[in-house]
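fyi for ur records
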Amino acid sequence: MNIDELKNTWNEDIVEETPEISIEQRNKLHLPLEKIRKNMRVEFWWMIGIFVFAFLVCSVCRPFKLQLYITVLIASMLLVTVFFFSKFFTLYNEISNPAPKTYDSLKDLVMQLNLNKQYYLSYYISFAPFLVCEILIVLEFIPWPKPLSELKIAVVLISTVTVGLFLLYIVGRFWYQRYYGRYIQYIENLLEELKR
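which gave:
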């Protein structure tokens, strides 16, 4: 292919403009985005309440060693929560802006919402090590009528971690679908509608 043919081919390519989203479609988009934002705010305040309550409970735990272990554990959970909520806050700010005006910006928003789904599930699963630590603390500090054998401790620990991981994943998926997933599905349907 010579240079003239290349120029002609280049000039013949028609660049499609990114389709604009109509005002009606932007209005349809506003409601699910507002619902997502509202649910994110509610969840944020619930987390603050849960951690305040947890630290209050820690303050009355005795003996001191138990209080120290639980306080460090809850402080570690708080750090993990702060990390993930910083990611959620970024999305919250992103969807606080006016509704997207083009197909590409809506596509980008859907991608960010789906990425945050992965963050959300990772957030729930990241509590597995804390579950292990909680079980170890319970096994250490609860007075048992008979000392537990090493086999019983291993069975309790392994079964709790297995069941706990499964439940954390299921609860995370259910919670996400209930409070965010259905609205994201609505936005994805709107995106498909625009594609046609």
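The CA atoms of residues 160 and 168 lie 11 Å apart. thats all i got for now
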